[in-house]
Predict the 3D structure of the following.
Amino acid sequence: MISFVVADIVEVFYTVMLPIVRVGAMLLTAPVFSMDSVTLKIRVIVTIALTAAIYPLIDWPTIDPLSAEGLMEIAHQALIGITMGLFLQIISAAFVVAGQTISTTMGLAMATLSDPNLGTVPVIGQLLTILGVLIFLGSGGHIILIEMLLESFRLLPIGERLYMPEIFPKLIAWSGTIFLGAVLIAIPILSVMLLINIGLGIVARAAPQLNIFAVGFPAMIIVGLFVLITAMNGIGMRMQYLWNLGLNSVKTTVLGVS
């Protein structure tokens, strides 16, 4: 009797090990879930809860995790989860780059904060990152991401290989979204700051005796903050567009859903 119970427990362990690896790997790299403010205990609880939710829905193969096949399958499941998270982390990086660009243009490049999640970033970058996280959560992006993760077990079942030579070039090409997204977010502020710099240059050239830069730098900060506040609605819409673009990229590239 005891031997049957032990055999059942071992079989359940063999079948539940692989989905836990994929879910945990995605949570380690995906936005919001990978932040240091989300502690290890929370990630473990969420991983176990998601795995328990999908476990009765799918027929899982029994693979010994200590065998060569099992170790390769564990590595492959971790790679699938990490790839899904990396596609969205690129969007988060675009917000940081946009904040750094805006801060440098406004003259706030030295005003930085020590963020435990991102390191030392400019204050504008911190603002845009927090705004991006709120938009991601407010628009239900975390729910969509979890749905795609659960759907991935149907589209990419255990034992089926993800064709990585095709995924990696797409991931590298997708990384260009860091700069494209940063420009898309920062372009209103950059345009106004460029016009102000041109005006200050013309005034300084026309009246060299005036110390125009002593007045110009504080004016650039004030005008830049005003333009940033004015353009915040459009920036929020662009952030939501980038999140949707990232989720669609995960769906089409990793999961193969057209």
About this structure: The chain has a mean pLDDT of 80. The chain is about 75% helix and 5% strand. Strands lie at 112-115, 119-122.
